[in-house]
Structures are given as structure tokens and as C-alpha cells.
Amino acid sequence: MKRNNIKQIRSNDNFLVFGSPFIEKPEIDEVVSILNAGWLGTGPKVAQFESDFSKYKRVTFAAAVNSCTAALHLSLLVAGLEDGDEVITTPLTFCATINAIIHSGAKPVLADIDPITMNISPDQVEKKITSKTRAIIPVHFAGRPCDMDALKTIAHKYNLKIIEDCAHAIETVYKGKNAGSFGDFACFSFYVTKNVVTGEGGMVFTKRKEDVDRIKILALHGMSKDAWRRFADDGYKHYAVVECGFKYNMTDIQAAIGIHQLQRVEKYWLRRQTVWNRYNEGLSKVPIVIPGKVESNTRHAYHLYTILIDEKMSGVSRDKFLNLMTEQNIGVGVHYLSIPEHLYYQKSFGWKPEDYPNAMRIGRQTVSLPLSAKLTDKDVRDVIEAVNLCILSK
Ligand SMILES: Cc1ncc(COP(=O)(O)O)c(C=O)c1O
Questions:
Q1: Residue 193 CA, closest ligand 1 atom number
Q2: Torsional class of 35: left (φ above 0), alpha (ψ -120 to 50), beta (otherwise)
Q3: Which residues are catalytic?
Q4: 248 ligand 1 Cβ < 6 A
Q5: Does pLDDT of 218 surpass 90?
Q6: Does residue 1 register a pLDDT over 60?
Q7: Cα-Cα end-to-end distance for the chain
Q8: Cβ contacts of 148 within 8 Å, gap of 6 or more
Q9: Choice from 65, 67, 68, 204 to test ligand 1 binding pocket (greatest atom count within 8 A of CB)
Q10: Is the pLDDT of residue 5 over 90?
Q11: How sure is the predictor about 2, in pLDDT bands with cuts at 50, 70 and 90?
């Protein structure tokens, strides 16, 4: 089939959805059985998911919540941030990282990224430290671990908390240690496009028991611990409201999906690694930039496969390329326009994209290709063929 004299790789009724999750029968069956049983709220499945996920990541204290955004917000509150405190993070992240800082009452401060790893540059972090700095939020971008040795050294030197944004980093390992085990807090996402999904969902890890206890209280209206058991069959229990909390709890329906997804996390990781390697091979002759090599002694989570379309090199603009891929019925993403490109932050903080040149350039050139365990070999071939075609026939 031809359209505008350009070969059509996929037909209109076969659109390849970007980030489509791989949902299988065990989670479908379990959700149905939960619906039949009638306990839909926060209950035993959430407790099991917390336990399974913390075993997988080899950490002790975990609290499931309803998003990574909630996880970040609660971590910042429990870290004890106060109005006017500063938190340093990356300009190449989802807006949720920044918004959580603002909601906690603190002021976000950006430190530019390393252009190859696309992760926050420890040198830039150190330059941004003031007497008001209290915390750093590194984001393990696309699933590639940040330079945690350098960041830990800085945090120690200036007595700062580390809150890891692990939204992309479920399977990430840095020098033998799991992402999420470095910070005082670590926040995960199980949003629909993530490597393990629960629909919406998140998890917080803490180093200290008192922090996880407080997060559980804050996540459910500020009601005393174990409030979710108040309707159990061993008699009504009054609850006490001990803080002014939020409605951030995960439900058993969400947790049931996550429990089964987690059982396949390594199988899915292997599949995405295969897709990643095929993209590397199949795109090696196209004038684009493909992701940097995975550093030795680390494990990449293969959450996002991002290519760079530099108009001078590729002969097509990034935005034109996005449209051409969509016309080929292949869903693509942008992760992310750098944070200072957005009007709200420009107005609130006076940020300018040019002040963070690496994040600005990457944000203007980046395109994420589909990278889900659900992709068939044919889907992967279609993506490679479409990228080649969109660049070479522009
Ligand atoms: C880096 C990063 N941080 C935070 C979030 C927020 O996650 P959630 O949608 O679970 O709130 C996302 C979601 O895409 C993300 O990519």
C-alpha cells in the first residue's frame, strides 16, 4: 500500500500503541475474583504486593500508594522539608517530579544533565547547592542508573537527603545494588506504560521504619496505622485521625494486577533487552543518535529507547519525524521536553531552557520508540523499517 508515494509500513487498523502494557490471564482472573469477593479497597493484596516488591528489590520498608507522584509528595513531606527549602533535581523529567517538590512547599532547583547518560550531572548539582538546599531527587532516566557514588558523596558532604525517582528504574542496578536502595526514600511508578503496571500505582521505600509508618498514615487521610482493617470481620474498630493526610492509598484491585506482573518482571526485561539490541542493530546505519552503551557494572531497566533526531544530521525535524512515524501507524513518545520549556515554570521561577543546554537540546531532539514486552518480532521489524523510511525518504 502506498500513501503520498511513500510505502505504508502498517495499516490504519493496526496502529502500534506506544507503551501498551502486556496484560495476561493471571492478573485478569485475579481481578475478576476480587470483584466477586467484594473487598475492592486497600487490603491483603496491597500488603502482599508491598512484600513481594520489597523482596524483589531487597529492601525492608515499603508502602504502596496510588502513584509515583503521591510517593514523591509523601517522601518530601516525611523528609521534613519546610517552606523555602531547596530541592535539586533534573530538568529532563516528567513534570510530576517538579510538581511534588512545589506541593511540599519547597523550591525546585534544576541542575543540567550529562548529555550521554541523560542523567543529572553531579558536578552541576554541586554548583547549585546553597545554604537552603535540603535534598536531591535523582531520576534514573529511561532506566539507566544515575552516578549514585558521586551523588551520595555530595549528599553526605552537605547533609542532604536523597529521594530517588525510580519511575523508570524497576529493574535498574548500579554497581551491584538495586536502584531504590541508595536514597533515604525511593519512589516507583506502576502507571500503564511502566515496566510493571497496576493501572495507576506507586510505591515508596524508606530507610527508617518510622518514615514508612508515617507515609502509610499520610497516604490514608492521616488515620492511625491499620485503619484499612476497620471493616474486617473481627469486630468494628474505631480509627484515630493523627495527621492531616491525603487519599493516596493503593487498592487491592491494583495490587492484584501488580502481583502477577511482578512475577514476570525478569521475563519482560529479557524481552525488552532483545528489542533494544535489535533496535541498536537495525538503526545503526540511519543518521540519528541511538542510546549510549549500558555502562559496565550496571543494569539498565530498558524502560525507554530514545533516539535523537538532529535536523542537521537527520535531514528532518524532530516534530516532522513524530508525524511521519504516526502516519506509519507507529506510536511514538517524547520524554521529555525539558522542564524550563513549560510556561508555568517559566512564569513561576523565571527558568529559561537555554540555561540548561544539554536538557534543552535533548528535549528538542528526543523521540521514544515503542519498547514493551508485548511487541512481536514483526512489530519490532516494522518500527525499524519505519524509522529508516521516515529518515531516508524525507
Ligand atoms: C520520571 C517520572 N517521575 C514521576 C512520574 C509520575 O508517575 P505516576 O504517573 O505514577 O504518578 C513519572 C510518570 O511518568 C515519571 O516518568
A1: 14
A2: alpha
A3: 194
A4: no
A5: yes
A6: no
A7: 18
A8: 138, 174, 175, 177, 182
A9: 68
A10: no
A11: very low
Tens-place pLDDT, residues 249-284: 999 999 999 999 999 999 999 999 999 999 999 999
Crossing angle for the helix pair 265-282 and 377-392, to the nearest 10 degrees = 30
Average pLDDT, the chain: 95
48-71 pLDDT tens trace = 999 999 999 999 999 999 999 999
Among 168, 185, 170, 34, residue whose Cα is nearest residue 101: 185
Pocket test for ligand 1, best of 73, 90, 94 (most atoms within 8 A of CB): 94
Determine the pLDDT at residue 237.
Answer: 74
Say yes or no: CB of residue 321 within 6 Å of ligand 1: no
Give residue 168 CA to ligand 1 midpoint distance, Å.
Answer: 8
Res. 131 pLDDT band, cuts 50 70 90: very high
Separation of CA 202 and ligand 1 centre (Å):
9
Taking the centre of ligand 1 as the mean of its atom positions, its distance from the CA of residue 167, in whole angstroms, is: 5
Please tell me the predicted confidence (pLDDT) of residue 339.
Answer: 98
Is any ligand 1 atom within 6 A of the Cβ of residue 97?
Answer: yes
19 in contact with ligand 1, CB cutoff 6 A: no
Gap from CA of 278 to ligand 1 centroid (Å):
27
Ligand 1: nearest atom to the Cα of 70: 11
Give CA–CA dist 132/375, Å, rounded: 47
